[in-house]
Amino acid sequence: MKAKKAASLFLAFVLISTAATLVDRVESQYPDFTLYVDPPSIKEPPYKAIGSNITINIRISYIERLHGWDLKLRYNPLLLYTNSSLIKEGDFLKSVGPTLMSGPFFEEDFLYVGCRINAQDWADGSGVLISIAFILMRYGETKLEIITDPNDPFRTELFRLDGSLIEIASQDGYFRNVDSNKIPVGDFSYQPAFPLWYENVTFSASTSYDPDGTISRYVWYFGGQSGDINTANETSPIVYHQYKKFQTAYDEWNATVRLLIIDNAGTTGNLSVRRLTVISFRPVHDLTVDTVGLNQTIVYPGNSVKIAVGIGNQGNTQETLNVTVFYDSHLIGTQTNITLNASSRIDVYFTWSTAGVTLGVYIIRANVTEVVGETDLLDNSRTSLPSKLAITFPPAASFVYTPSEPYVDMDVTFNASTSLGSIMNYSWNFGDGNITTVNYPIIEHTYAAGGTFTVYLTVRDVLKVTDIFAQTINVLKLPSTISLSLPTKAKVGSSLQINGSINPIPSKANVTILYRLLGEDIWNSLANITTDALGRYAFDWTPVLNGTFQMKAMWAGDKKYEGDESDVLLVDVTKLSSVVSLTLSPSFVVVGEIVSINGSLSPNLSLVKIAILYSRNDGVWRSLRNVTTDENGKYAVKWQPSIAGTYQVKAVWEGDNLYSGDESDVVTIEVRERPSSPFEYQPYILGAVAIVALAVGLLGLLYWKRLKGKRRE
Fold first, then answer.
1. Which CATH topology does 182-278 take?
2. Burial letters 275-302, b for 16+ CB under 10 A, else e
3. Which residues of the chain have pLDDT under 70?
4. Is the CB of residue 512 less than 8 Å from the CB of residue 555?
5. 184, 223, 405, 444: which could form a disulfide with 269 (CB 3.0–4.6 Å)?
6. What is the DSSP letter of 96?
7. Are 81 and 139 in contact (CB under 8 A)?
């Protein structure tokens, strides 16, 4: 922490000692009350195709009591096209109530649109005022310019509920869709400097050029009054125009002249802009201060400010004049004996050292001396635009936070007490969409998601000078665990349930169940399922292969929790059992007689191949027949032995993916040789006769004893 504090103090010292870079730094970081284009710069590659879209947002940095706004945005209409359907109001004013959007209205090279809150209400903070989508018409570049010129009747303004204007700064945007060395560069001049109504004005774009080709077209917008022909599309760099007085109420007219050029490849350059004043008559003597420009609006004490004063001679006589510049009522400097031809203008430059000037905010004003015979003196003095210059030591933003590695949902304390300066408020952008402005240096914030966030602190002092400090914060996700449960044994083709849970309970988490055979390296996905409201999951798995499987469950985590993998469990999947049977009939035969072989397979599987094997007491099993079961799992085959002997017969089924194979019991059958003459059968016949005679004798004896018993009764 001490190192961070020392670094902040060193940063403040460097900023104070490098005043020349202050304006760029402040402007690029959008101080409070700044209207800006977001993104500020769109530079391709990759280049966008003709017909594709780009979208910009017009945002406001922190502002107070905004009730409504009007926006004038100038762009290159040859490059970008938009219409009412492509322009949408942002959510800034909508956040406090219903709004009413007026327009948009389109003119030549700009659009004008406004919005107000319907209720008697206002909005504070930062946000999007409007989103604008453009269709790309060709290749080229354009500035996206927010027009705030106070001399423009249709300019950008922000106002409060009572109608009073809010003083703002603006930051323009930029778009380029081609290599910079292929963009034509437009420039022009005009004569006379102060043309009369209906007087020919010569506009020359001869100083325009194309770095990789030639210019094929010059498109002019002359900025004349409504009803006049104010555009020209020419192939020549020289064009003439007259300003016609359609509205007699205007003795003078300030015209903003714009030039667009297109090269031979169809690429267009940015707008070139000049401003001229059309006058009703050219008096003998008439001097004017056209502009007072500053190269910066904030300067450190002792550093210098560049001031450019535009002087015009609207008369028809060459004049010798003096120019004086003041800050408030204090003299900055005077340049004397400046010669200025009739109907022409020049820029006079001053360098003002602020050494010894009291800290504060000042208005810069320039005067041109009155010449003899001059009657119009109202335009002999003008203040700067922007109108104020702050001489101050700027604030230096800095902050620390604790704890250094917070978790999601943990309160993080941000402390900006190390910031330097007369700070009026602290605006925090926590990087997660939350922007809060407070007038005290310590604030707490809780992150709802893990990740790395860039936190921006903008401090604003009593002179409305701002500074920004940023650093990243790494918010850790909360740990989680995922469990897995399943049987250790299973059968192929039989369903088993895999289940588990995630803790703490996430909302609808995606769980992946993985498996692999024991000994394999690659995990395979079995299922993707979602947890219920209690963080539980379940999946019914029907194995189609036997073997020992490794199983695990995993989830990738979410914005709040880290992911996890379960322990690896084993499940032994075996095939279902089967039984094959076999019978022989008769049990002995002579060579050449038929033996019936029958049997069945349980379960009753049809179209299953059964192998019938035999052996002749030599231990070698040979194939007798291959049979196929019927729809009931039964089989039958006839066998006609051709060699006498004792045979062992059995049925064998090899099994399939679902069932294990089986062998029947071994059945023995005696096959005798067929006799060569009838006498070979005599012993058998005599034996049979003897058996029959014995049976008849026994039956007769039993019958005689029964008759004898009845007679005694």
1. Immunoglobulin-like (2.60.40)
2. ebbbbeebeebbbbbbbbbbebbbbbee
3. 1-30, 44-45, 248-250, 386-387, 676-688, 704, 707-713
4. yes
5. 184
6. G
7. no
Residue range 481-574 in CATH 3.40.640.10: no
Is residue 156 within 8 Å of residue 170, measured between CB atoms? yes
Helices (H), 457-586: none
Residues 6+ apart with CB under 8 A from 696: none
Per-residue tokens: 246:
């359609």
Portions of the chain given CATH number 2.60.40.10? 1-28+395-475, 182-278, 287-391, 579-672
The strand pair at 34-38 and 298-299 is best described as unpaired
Confidence (pLDDT) at 23: 31
The tokens describing 483, both together, are: 């469990």
Tokens standing for 334?
Answer: 């005077």
Instruction: Please say whether the beta carbons of 93 and 99 come within 8 A.
Output: yes
Q: Would you state the structure tokens that stand for residue 593, as one six-digit string?
A: 């007689």
What pLDDT score does 5 carry? Answer: 40
> What whole-number distance in Å separates Cα of residue 38 and Cα of residue 128?
9
pLDDT of residue 684: 56
Chain region(s) in the chain for CATH 2.60.40.680: 31-176
Binning the chain into helix, strand and coil, the percentages to the nearest 5 are: 10, 50, 40
Q: Residue for token digits 């027949």?
A: 625
CA proximity to 297, closest of 385, 397, 172, 420? 385
Task: For residue 95, give the 3-state DSSP assignment.
Answer: helix
Reading the block at residue 379, the tokens are 């335009």
Q: Which amino acid is at 160?
A: R
CA distances from 582 to 53, 421, 489, 514 (A): 80, 103, 32, 44
CB atoms within 10 A of CB 237: 17
31-176: which CATH topology? Answer: Immunoglobulin-like (2.60.40)
Yes or no: is domain 1-28+395-475 CATH 3.40.50.720?
no
Is residue 436 a contact partner of residue 460, using CB atoms and an 8 Å limit?
no
Residues of the chain with CATH 2.60.40.730: 481-574
* Residue type for position 215: I
Tell me the residue type at 448: A
Strand runs labelled E in 407-506: 411-415, 423-429, 435-438, 442-446, 451-461, 466-475, 481-482, 489-491, 496-503
* CATH code at 579-672: 2.60.40.10
678: its two tokens: 């009838």
Could you tell me the CA-to-CA distances from 495 to 523, 569, 653, 656 in Å, in that order?
Answer: 21, 17, 25, 18
CA distances from 221 to 107, 247, 271 (A): 10, 19, 10
- Residue 705 host element (H or E): helix 682-712
- pTM listed for this prediction: 0.54
How far apart CA 703 and CA 682 sit, in angstroms, is 32
Please give the full DSSP string across 221-245, using - where no structure is assigned: E----TTS--EEEESSSEEEE----
Q: What is the pLDDT of residue 20?
A: 30
Which three-class secondary structure string do you get for 563-603? EEECCCEEEEEECECCEECCEEECCEEECCCCEEEEEEEEC
Q: What stretch of H or E contains 708?
A: helix 682-712
Strands 569-574 and 489-491: parallel
- Residue keyed to tokens 């022409």: 344
**Burial readout 15-41 (b: 16 or more C-beta within 10 A, e: otherwise):** beeebeebeeebbebbbbbbbbbeeee
pLDDT tens, residue by residue, 193-246: 999 999 999 999 999 999 999 999 999 999 988 777 889 999 999 999 999 987
**Single-letter code of the amino acid located at 257:** V
Helix (H) or strand (E) holding 6: helix 2-17
Best CATH choice for the domain 287-391 from the list 2.60.120.1690, 2.60.40.10, 3.10.170.10, 2.60.40.2470: 2.60.40.10
**Which pLDDT score, from 0 to 100, does residue 681 have?**
52
Which pLDDT does position 686 carry in this prediction?
A: 65
Would you call 15 helix, strand, or coil by DSSP?
helix
